[in-house]
Amino acid sequence: MIQKIRKKTIFVILYNIAFVVLFFLLAELLFGLLLNNPQSIPKKLLPLFREYYLYSDRKVIQAIPEFSRYDTALFYTLKPGRFIFSNREYEVGFHVNQLGVRDDEQSLNKPKIAVLGDSYAMGWGVGQKKTFTEILESRIQTPILNLGVSSYGTVREFGILQRIFTDSLQYVIIQYSYNDYRENLSYVNNNNKLLTSSEQAYEEMCLAHQRNQRYYFFKRSILFPKYIVSLFRNKYGIKNKEENRREMDEYDAFLSVISDVDFLPEKTRFIVFNIDYRNSDKTFIQEVKKRINYFPALKERMIFIDLSASLSPDKFFVLDDHMTESGHKIVADRIEKHLVLTVF
């Protein structure tokens, strides 16, 4: 009798284990199928899949040694040469010049226009000829240097600009993003000095990204509950202190960084716009316009573009938070209206 009970108990346990394994297996396969076909993801589940993709699935170009290199002053630049960078929704070619930016060598020769920014300006997810920089260049028939590098803040953007010949610059186009704040504030708080990490820190960042991005069995099924909790916290406004503090002074930090730039000709004008997560929040342009009065040397040199009514969510990838080709075209359209080049 006891033996029969034991056999029955073992059978029940094995049955339950098999059921759980089968459930997770089916869930894993379903999640994988939807990740590979983002257009099929139910609308209510999109936030969950986006969280997983952004933080546990997407390859980040600056954290992959095949595509980037350590830099003592800027922490990293892109690695010169040609390579293919891909994620679930795109596979695009990169041509990186010797400076470490996504442009050709000819564009480094006394440019009249330079574009500063992070991954949005770099053209994350679109072909090199489809970035707003290249679209503008083909329209106005004037070389434009694209200095955008993924995750750069305003400080490093001007840092890499300083490495080229700037006497011919008539326009510096600045694409701002809310995550520039931390770098900009650090610069201002450290007496206008950029603090960069060591090569060891860069290597550790790359290894951490490799571990985080690597797939293991049942990874999606295991991690999705974590992102459900994260979304729940965000939905009910549970923010950290740094986020609340950021909203108070990111505008002053941005203007303080630019006001410290002393290597550009006085004739150079700045065209400023912002692109954030799947949109362009109009608050940034509004606030910077208000505070520009405290920076009189910059006031007459600044041109602001509000993209909040132009960059709708459909101009971005489904999973990835970067612009598609149609988004880059809109940005090029808006910038083009403000470019008036002088011959001298």
Q: How many beta strands in the DSSP annotation? A: 9
Parts with pLDDT < 50 across at least 5 consecutive residues:
238-248
Number of domains: 2
Q: What is the H level of CATH, i.e. the homologous superfamily of the largest domain? A: SGNH hydrolase
Largest sheet: 5 strands, parallel
- Can you list the strand order of the major beta sheet? 6-5-7-8-9
Q: What integer value in Å does the Rg equal?
A: 24 Å
CATH topology of the largest domain: Rossmann fold
> Which second-level CATH architecture of the largest domain applies?
3-Layer(aba) Sandwich
Mean pLDDT: 90
Overall 3D form: elongated
Q: Which structural class do you get from the secondary structure elements?
A: alpha/beta
| End-to-end CA span | 102 Å
Number of helices: 12
CATH class placement of the largest domain: Alpha Beta
Q: Report helical residue fraction.
A: 40-55%
Throw out a few tags for this protein.
Rossmann fold, 2 domains, two-stranded antiparallel ribbon, 12 helices, elongated
Could you describe the 3D structure shown?
The protein is of the alpha/beta class. The protein has twelve helices and nine strands. 44% of the residues lie in helices and 13% in strands. Helix 2 (46-56) crosses helix 8 (219-235), helix 4 (132-140) crosses helix 12 (325-336) and helix 6 packs across helix 9.
